Amino acid sequence: MALNNLYAISLDGVDDNIVVPFSTVMQQEQFTIEMLFQLTNNAYFQTFLSYGGLVSDGWMIQRTSDGKLRLAWGSSYPNDYSGFDVSTNQVMISIVRNAGDVMFYINGVLVHTWTHASAALGQYDLVIGKRSDNVQFSQMECDELRLWNYNRSQLEIEYYKDRKLVGNEQGLVSYYRCDSGSGNILIDEINNNDATIQGGTWIAGEVDLQPPGVFMKSYDVTNISASSATLNGEIFSLGEYSQLDVAFQYSPYPDFSQDINQTSIQTITAPQVISANVTGLDQSTGYYVRMTAEGS
What we know:
Layout: E1 7-12, E2 17-20, E3 30-39, E4 45-50, E5 59-63, E6 69-73, E7 76-81, E8 90-98, E9 101-106, E10 109-115, E11 126-128, E12 139-148, H1 154-160, E13 172-176, E14 185-186, E15 195-198, E16 201-204, E17 214-218, E18 229-238, E19 244-251, E20 261-262, E21 266-268, E22 272-278, E23 288-295
Antiparallel strand pairs: 1-12, 1-16, 2-11, 2-15, 3-8, 3-12, 4-5, 4-11, 5-6, 6-7, 8-9, 9-10, 12-13, 14-15, 17-18, 18-22, 19-20, 19-21, 19-23
């Protein structure tokens, strides 16, 4: 049993499935679906993220009996991925929709980008574990289902793939931790868009998730002149802190061993982009920049 991830849900491959009620997020040009799952045997496997009828807009993730993994949109199979045998591994899958492109990640690794013709998604529930025509079902264990209202970057996907979320992350609109351990309701920690477990069984969680962390990134320097510049960055998550004191540091030394300069501290209480102007730079000197944050 995992110490900080006590429960998961097992689907038997016969008639079990999970139904997430329709959300307008799933009709947007940009969104992300993420789910932690594990196969329960080495056989043929399919898990479905379905909208309405078989040929409707929806995804199917399939592992065939020869060990290949493929992503399907509607009834189309764009590619096989023989290098991703997930027969015994618990993995985080991420499906990112960005207008006409669908990107498929496994454990933070981009395995396929597919440009599809369909521009609109139907007003259907999100169904996990069964094909929409009720003909095929998935034998699997699932956990940590997350819905985001934007196309998440590979950097974000890789960072968060094995972390528990706080619930206040920017763009997170539904979060199903699978932590209740009983009943047929899968609680949405964000917007009360609770899902229904139809026949699934609560089991012990198998993977320990890392605690939430402060996630930030420096961006390119702008407005560069002979003696001044603008330093830029973004805080994606405050982790478990209610506020962060954030600053930029810059130094001529890549290891920041000496001559460290720091901008004024900016106190933030929510994810956001930040910038700071610096002056008095030596135009003959190159500088390295980093962000720092202290939580409270």
